[in-house]
Task: structure prediction
Amino acid sequence: MRMAVLTSGGDAPGMNAGLRAVVRAGLDRGFDVVGIRRGYAGIFDDGFEPMDRRSIVNIVQRGGTVLGTSRCPRLRTDAGLAEAVQILRRQRIDAMVLIGGDGTFRGGAALEAAGGPATVGVPGTIDNDVPGSETSLGFDTAVNTAVEAIDRIRDTATSHEVLHFVEVMGRHCGAIALAAAVAGGAEAVLVPEAELSDRTLAARIDAEMRAGKRSVIVVLSEGAREGSAEQVAANVAGVLGLEHRLTVLGHIQRGGSPSAADRILGALFGLEAVDAVAEGARGCYIGQRSGAIVRIPYGELDGPPVGLDQRLVRAAHLIS
Amino acid sequence: MRMAVLTSGGDAPGMNAGLRAVVRAGLDRGFDVVGIRRGYAGIFDDGFEPMDRRSIVNIVQRGGTVLGTSRCPRLRTDAGLAEAVQILRRQRIDAMVLIGGDGTFRGGAALEAAGGPATVGVPGTIDNDVPGSETSLGFDTAVNTAVEAIDRIRDTATSHEVLHFVEVMGRHCGAIALAAAVAGGAEAVLVPEAELSDRTLAARIDAEMRAGKRSVIVVLSEGAREGSAEQVAANVAGVLGLEHRLTVLGHIQRGGSPSAADRILGALFGLEAVDAVAEGARGCYIGQRSGAIVRIPYGELDGPPVGLDQRLVRAAHLIS
Amino acid sequence: MRMAVLTSGGDAPGMNAGLRAVVRAGLDRGFDVVGIRRGYAGIFDDGFEPMDRRSIVNIVQRGGTVLGTSRCPRLRTDAGLAEAVQILRRQRIDAMVLIGGDGTFRGGAALEAAGGPATVGVPGTIDNDVPGSETSLGFDTAVNTAVEAIDRIRDTATSHEVLHFVEVMGRHCGAIALAAAVAGGAEAVLVPEAELSDRTLAARIDAEMRAGKRSVIVVLSEGAREGSAEQVAANVAGVLGLEHRLTVLGHIQRGGSPSAADRILGALFGLEAVDAVAEGARGCYIGQRSGAIVRIPYGELDGPPVGLDQRLVRAAHLIS
Amino acid sequence: MRMAVLTSGGDAPGMNAGLRAVVRAGLDRGFDVVGIRRGYAGIFDDGFEPMDRRSIVNIVQRGGTVLGTSRCPRLRTDAGLAEAVQILRRQRIDAMVLIGGDGTFRGGAALEAAGGPATVGVPGTIDNDVPGSETSLGFDTAVNTAVEAIDRIRDTATSHEVLHFVEVMGRHCGAIALAAAVAGGAEAVLVPEAELSDRTLAARIDAEMRAGKRSVIVVLSEGAREGSAEQVAANVAGVLGLEHRLTVLGHIQRGGSPSAADRILGALFGLEAVDAVAEGARGCYIGQRSGAIVRIPYGELDGPPVGLDQRLVRAAHLIS
Result:
């Protein structure tokens, strides 16, 4: 068995831990293991590289992905797909493990449909928006990063009467914002999944302040609203007649040494992916459901979006 | 409804997050909420203190427990129990939320049996050894602390030929050691639940070094063996003819700002505990099973010990 | 001797360490020590509070300031000054220690001029812009915070071809930006003290990329340019035909547990301030010159601005 | 000019930052730059490796040393020295930059005396025990690591009546212990430079507890006493009739991403070392005096030991 592995899409802490597990488990089964550099693009530009135990020494704690990642529009064309399948055949790849998000898995499905090797996905994205899985590599780390930022702002926020806004990642999915708000004890949270007008938000903040809060921190997803976070912040602060400060966490959330949970998840996802490959599985990705590690058919990628954890929605409402 | 809340046993990061959720959710239901300082000892020495929203401002991020904790041998006597029940009646306590470990919950069971108020437990212990629950407040933080220590040692371990031993907490339960070993990429792990002789361990390390490892880190629970960690380390290093260094993490693992996961768990456990109190539940503790928040009867405290997560045992074996 | 102490201006990590040293050293000399809450505003709104050893337990590690701070326009009027002097007399304050920035010290000078008590300043500001002192409380922590952010972005920046911009604090002073750029290995830095056109910056980045850099991070002070950081980033990226991402660190830099260096500085500054008070000094602030702790007369506040450390300017140029 | 660079002795955070500066500044001057792997041992076992800009990409933030280090008893013999000189001639090395401690610099002096190339030292050791220099690479990071550990223990120490002992590095030099004690607010500190009997220490702790302290943390250097830290801890706790807990930080202090200050120091030391090489200097090491970067002749290595910073001794005494 000759098994390739790549990382694709936006990088996420824990991808290296997942990669390490895939390589070690593959070698343990006697597979030939091949890394592909720069994601799908590496198929076209000779990114193939044999992996042994030395290839993955001392990477479990490192952020980003040592294999690299990139966009690959070429794979979205029929010609590109056909060429990729040919190259993968020439490289004698029997199966591929794809570490990335739903877009990465769709690429795998397309490759399979075009006659390519078996593919098995491993969810690696800080956004935690892979359908059917409760979590993905990088989400726990990203939330911890956002919470640390909120803690620091809280230190200073207790001294002044200023509204603080913290923009976190999540164009279509408020998972990071919601989890960070609950963990950080934020006074309010704005997510793409829920409508909340500036006036309503301002009224809510006003109520908190009347109840004695001396500092107010609002967490918002980058995709929570039309318009920039700065506009939202200025509007809400304007309604209340307060000053405001905006922090934009940006790519800080993608980096950093992965949390213990993300590394352990990388190990479990990686081992399961190699088990799946060994058993001849294809057309599926690994995920977590009710705490268990499971295999999910690519078909579920077209199901309903994940949605927010309603327990956290309640927590944010009750104890912010 | 007049609801008391206390923290008891060894303190754990996330206890404050749990406390905050219990108080906020209780106030939201219109309960009178009373904190008891210094654990069960506070029942006897006038530790009762009314809690309002201000009592829990800015505590979600703080390690330890703002209510304090202590040992209370007095509660283990019949006379002590009877006195405690009387005091709790005088204080008109209808229900108590107990944040702590299995010993804390046994105290609650004894109080109920002696005619005391309804009690509901919330697992708060870094050891993750509460029967029936997959996790407890403080475990995720403690593992992250241990992993950070391993990462730092790895930085320097790559330069020298020295065996590094890291002792983590866990007198009867290897959960921290196992999780930290998988997440830290340790070369071996010693836990109370599994026999592993010094010679076998040395042979295993020898094999790793022959396979090219330049640095070796062994994680061991404080309860992994008779005798001190220093003796184990010296023995194993002696067999291999190598130098060794020992790090003892000790109480570092109990402190620190709680991780995002422990704070969120504190919110979910705390909300469920107050739901339980509101519904008239008693004689149970909150836990996590298959990822869901559940209520577990005190009777399960006498069930079989938790045991190691076999998925992690496999991961430690395959990818160390 | 009855000595008051307050914190004023933007808060900074290490203020609590300074406060602790002032209180402990004052008590050790047998002074009555009084804290004033909310900075100068506390003089007017009854912010006086006796300080003993218990007042400062467990604060050395905390961000922000436990005494609080606020703006106080009232002190800038003659009537306000006269009233403040009267209140301070009524409170029998013999001397005041003022922890803050140059504005705070000017307030002290004005109080002295109006017949108020002796005042001694302690530099506490992340901006490191107090004339005559090499450093101030909070600067080291703020630089570490910015560097941590740069490290995280570097993790992910190594995978993609995107320009990263990180905005740090410093409206008039590029000290944080320069230090963070050198420590973070940033490819370029923009500060208020030096002109650098977008075209020149773009040319420089282009040269770096031709020399093989796969990732580019530019650090800029909030006051580096007219216009927003977003505009600068968009312009430079536009010239180069690359994508860009902006991170705005904002108030994250003001918070967080102080670094060891800031806590030690707090101890040394605080002890020296109390020595000065005991010796009857007035009209001066503590500072660091050539590594030594010194007293600097208020007159130097009107001297030339601090300017950038030219050794770091050279380092940024040579080794970015 | 062909310039070699090596790291030697115990590794220290910031060595990579120093290495990066040496390489970049050397290349900037048009030097041939050669790295030697594994310290002096690499001279004998073919550790020479040309360095270009790519050799040092993304290392500024990494702990340890990418060049590696090892012991080299061979260099301490006359035959070994003569052979090393011959090899260095064959490699046409004109000058060497030596990153390490005083032992490393003595090696350089011996090489020069035996007819080897010019050598210039850069202090890199967490112990901060290089004669004549106020600081060295790694010290600031190690102190921050120790302080973080103390902070965590403080979180839990506030809840129980237990003496906590924290052993930090420093066989002959109490610099880390003293700085960590002041920054961590420890109640007492034991260093090799000062006699302090167990009884005196116990009496002091007793006084602190009578004054109201609820938690006591004692920091001790590994070399503070004959006998193990465990013995000291047990003795002192025994006198007081209290329980005790010991944390041994061990090699945790050598690792970790370097602090901003250590990276900046690496830049300044590295640039000055290359300036010295370019100017034909030899027989000296770089250091910091009164905050300035200076060159110190090897002769000062035989001067009096560094001694503790008396300002910190006073601070530890007054405000612990």
